[in-house]
Write the structure tokens for this entry.
Amino acid sequence: LEQPMMHDEL
Amino acid sequence: MNIFRLAGDMTHLASVLVLLLKIHTIKSCAGVSLKTQELYALVFATRYLDIVTDFISVYNTVMKLIFLGSSFSIVWYIRHHRVVRRSYDKDQDTFRHYLLMIPCMLLALFVHEKFTFKEVMWTFSLYLEAVAILPQLVLLQRTRNIDNLTGQYVFLLGAYRGLYIFNWIYRYFTEPHFVHWITWIAGVVQTLLYADFFYYYFESWKNNVRLQLPA
């Protein structure tokens, strides 16, 4: 997974 | 997107709107800490560096633009607006922000998940957001009578943080995940800072008296 999960949060 | 995350974002949005409403319509920023607002502007500027490099969703981009735009315009209003700036409690709002910024930057340089510019900045923004409310809480404590809008602003900000914790718990059980200790710990610390405020907020609400924090 390239995009760690927290980075889609504000 | 789960319900806690959406509710958290909407509460965050509501807090910003309440503050803008106070500043824009009442033309007053009494009881609002410029230091905290400047720290938030820095938080968003350093966290949303990915706005130009990564596309997540329209929702994500729009919200980022709103938080960036609102935080910088609030700072502008308090510093430069002809009428608003006169209501600023400059003598009371004396918290020195570099006392928060420097330790957060050092911590981000040493404790991060990846040593890249974007990642260190993102981590810095998490640490800084965790403590950015402190100048505002100190100012509230010094203010004899806290007006309703300022009280609601801080309450909504605290609620937003609380909802994000529920969001992480939910995501932890429903999504393939990494454990993001940095985000979790910074988030929990940030929420705990509101505990005292919440206590007095509910007390004043229950007893139907004006909110006042003990010195």
